[in-house]
C-alpha cells in the first residue's frame, strides 16, 4: 500500500520542529480527508513541492545537450490538505519502522503526515485535567488560535484512527486511547417528547427513567433576607452568607415597593406552576451503579458539524440527542491515563451508550457523531 508513496525525509532536521501524525497500516488518505472536512469545512487537497535536503559537497552532473548546463533533479511533488489559511498537512509519506521509532512514533506506524502550521503559544498550562496530554506536550505555553485548532484536530484524528501525534520541538508523542471517549450524539430533524424518548431508551436499557425535579418550588425560604437572624455564632446565614447585608445596602428601600415586587413575583410563580411553558430540553437517566450514569440530553442544536451544515434535512432545524457517560469519579474523564477501575467501568458502559444511540437512530434517522464531531456509521456501533 505504501510502495507508491514518497518516503518521509526522516533525516531532515526541520522535520523534528513540526507536528507529525503517524498512522498504522490500512488507513487511506481519503479517511484523513473526511476527518479534515469534518472539522474544517474548506479543507481541500493541493500539490506542494517537497523540500529535499541537499548533500554537502555533492556536485550535480552536467550535460552538453543544448549547451553546457547542470542537470537538476526534479523536486518530488506531494499532496497536502489545506486545513486553514496558514496550515496544511502534507502526506501521506511512507516511513520505515526504524525511522518511525527514531522519531518516537509507534513501531506500527506505516504512514506519516507532516503539519506545516504557525507557532502560536499562550500562557503556561494551568493545573487540572489533561485528557489529551497537551499540557504535558506544551509545558512552556499552550497553543492558541490556529495552532490550537489544528493540534486538537491531530489528536482527535489519532484517537479515531489508532495513531499517534509527535509534537514538534518538544518531541513528546501523544497516543490517545481509542476507547478514551465513548459519548455519542444523534443529530435528527424530529423532536421526541420525553415519554417517547424514554420508551426508546427503555427498549434497550429497561431501568432508564426521566430526569425530573425531586421537589417543587414553593417560593423563597422562610427567614431569608432582611428578616434573617442567623449568621451569628458560627451559624450559616440562611440564603447564603452576606445576603442580608447586601439587601440592606443595595436593595429596594421602600417597604411598600418591596411588598409590591414580592407579590408580583409570587403571582408570576403561580402562573408558571399552573401553566408551565413547553419544555425546550429534557433528560433521560440510566443508573449503572458502580459504573456511573448514562444520560440522554435532548435539545435543539444550532452549531452543527460542518458535514451536516448543507444537508437539506438540517435546514428546518436540528435536535441533538447527546448520550453521555459519567463515571462515579468524574475527574477521571479528564485524565490522560485514568485508573484501571475507570477503564473497566467505561468498558462496561460503552456498549450501553452505543445501544442507546442505535435505538435513537432507528427511531429518528439522522446522523451519529462522536465527541470530536466525526460522523459514525450506526453499523459500526
SSE layout and pairing:
Layout: E1 19-23, H1 29-39, E2 44-49, E3 62-63, E4 69-70, E5 77-84, E6 87-94, H2 97-102, E7 111-116, H3 134-137, H4 145-161, E8 164-166, E9 173-174, E10 184-188, H5 194-202, E11 209-210, H6 243-250, H7 255-274, E12 281-287, E13 293-301, E14 318-326, H8 340-364, E15 367-370, E16 375-376
Region (Disordered): 216-238
**Rg estimate, integer Å:** 29 Å
Q: Provide mean pLDDT, rounded.
A: 87
Per the principal axes of the C-alpha atoms, what is the gross shape?
elongated
Q: What's the total count of β strands? A: 16
Reading side by side through the largest sheet, how are the strands ordered?
Answer: 2-5-6-7-1-8-9
Strand content: 15-25%
Q: Note the run of SSEs as H and E.
A: EHEEEEEHEHHEEEHEHHEEEHEE
Low-confidence stretches: 52-59, 68-74
Strand pairing plus helix content: what structural class? alpha+beta
How far the N terminus sits from the C terminus, by CA atoms, comes to 27 Å
Q: How much helix is in the residues?
A: 25-40%
Our count of domains comes out at 3
Q: Major β-sheet, in short?
A: 7 strands, antiparallel
Tally the helices: 8
Region (Disordered): 216-238
